[in-house]
Amino acid sequence: xxxxxxxxxxxxxxxxxxxxxxxxxxxxxxxxxxxxxxxxxxxxxxxxxxxxxxxxxxxxxxxxxxxxxxxxxxxxxxxxxxxxxxxxxxxxxxxxxxxxxxxxxxxxxxxxxxxxxxxxxxxxxxxxxxxxxxxxxxxxxxxxxxxxxxxxxxxxxxxxxxxxxxxxxxxxxxxxxxxxxxxxxxxxxxxxxxxxxxxxxxxxxxxxxxxxxxxxxxxxxxxxxxxxxxxxxxxxxxxxxxxxxxxxxxxxxxxxxxxxxxxxxxxxxxxxxxxxxxxxxxxxxxxxxxxxxxxxxxxxxxxxxxxxxxxxxxxxxxxxxxxxxxxxxxxxxxxxxxxxxxxxxxxxxxxxxxxxxxxxxxxxxxxxxxxxxxxxxxxxxxxxxxxxxxxxxxxxxxxxxxxxxxxxxxxxxxxxxxxxxxxxxxxxxxxxxxxxxxxxxxxxxxxxxxxxxxxxxxxxxxxxxxxxxxxxxxxxxxxxxxxxxxxxxxxxxxxxxxxxxxxxxxxxxxxxxxxxxxxxxxxxxxxxxxxxxxxxxxxxxxxxxxxxxxxxxxxxxxxxxxxxxxxxxxxxxxxxxxxxxxxxxxxxxxxxxxxxxxxxxxxxxxxxxxxxxxxxxxxxxxxxxxxxxxxxxxxxxxxxxxxxxxxxxxxxxxxxxxxxxxxxx
Length: 665
Description:
The chain is an alpha+beta fold. It is 35% helix and 21% strand. It is elongated and about 140 Å long. 45% of the residues are buried.
């Protein structure tokens, strides 16, 4: 019995040995090369190398957005999460909370396999040195250089350029479909402005690198790789010098109004107001009430366009912000002091109390245009067959429909269309509005591009507010009310339900200046690939040609020129125009219109918004602009000084030197 069991046991052992020998032979002789290769591959990790984002470059060749290298500490998942000792050591070397490191690694390992997990972006020199010295004791730790967005001019055109943040789930699909390529959840993408509008052009193609890992999980060396391809550069139409003047002028004007000053200095020897940054006395904003301040004049916006193409030469919203706050702050780990600091900054940028610096008032804010709308009423009046030379009488008010509709002054008898535009007579336009009716004014406003997005090339989606051209159907649909005759009077002078953006108003002024051709504004001039080849060039695009009698348009233009003559509403701001351009015999004259848009009523009445639209030279227009100063008290007081600064800069009449800095030339 014992002998039989021994034989059976020996047989089993022999069979087992034969199976093992055959399996070893198969692994060594048949599959040896394949398994050796697989074993080697298990020691490799395929990592993506972020590509530099394309630059944003101004029309005068200044780089507005570029990339700088930043050192980033990463963890490369190697299997099981690192132990407490690893986490504590990295926390000590980087001054990060251990729990934040643990959470980041846990969430990272639950995502894309072997994808690097960012632990700290933009290491300082001490942190970099310490990590490099200890990396042999920290399996999976990797310190790499990554391109980080940088804005060399800080706050210049901040809302217009936009910013980048980490991609969202919705954007993963959206940008993937737009570009026809893969987007990854580690990407930083444009969230607003040009960064958003040109995202697909600016985003480069990641490189790849295979890194070898030793038996202890340490990164040994890079084995193979594919270099990243930078994104395309986007060249803009902005002029940096003009942009800086616009921004500084908006800031200076709002500050002086809040302090109770007339924004323009006054030369007593000449008895004239001067340029915004000239030497002179700062007089009270309201001579009748010297202690009067405009406390709510904290925000403003302006747009400058090329009349003959639609190029955006300058566009600003005040207050602005330093774009560099977006460089690395949104990449910090949660529950860190850096992350909390970023949360506070994000809250400030969106705060109403701080003026919502992220909000682009130039394209997203709408408000009544006040008297700058009167050119619409004037064209509708003449197109309806009424004579522009017929005189009306203004006694300072008009009694209609049981109410009194006021005028800002008493203009007397013989007020023609020319005088009415130059001196901004409300009574004239009340009568003109009643003569033509709301339907004609509504149609003319739409012809001039008001109340609809301009479609400006270079804006992010849904950034441009449409605005409102009021009319019978609009009021019935939106408010479920009929239109009343008294509302026609208010509509004729730009009050009531009108709501337009500064961009629309600038384009409106440019359309009048060009003789009736309305262009689609554009901010992106061309896209250029890393080899210097032009990928796409923006050409001027005609959006509409105004269908009016050329003589009627000419009369409106002459009326706007009259605003800068004695008794005109802009005269105190442009008293020395026309004047010759430096080095030439060419004189520059201005055509303009002031506007004061009332805000609220009764106990809720606030200081009016100050509007100003203009173009120059009046006889051969090159630029058109619109400026609005919220609660600035009036167009001549608040907005015209900004327009003057723009004209002075564009035509080379003066080198501006705001306090503390030299203006770009």
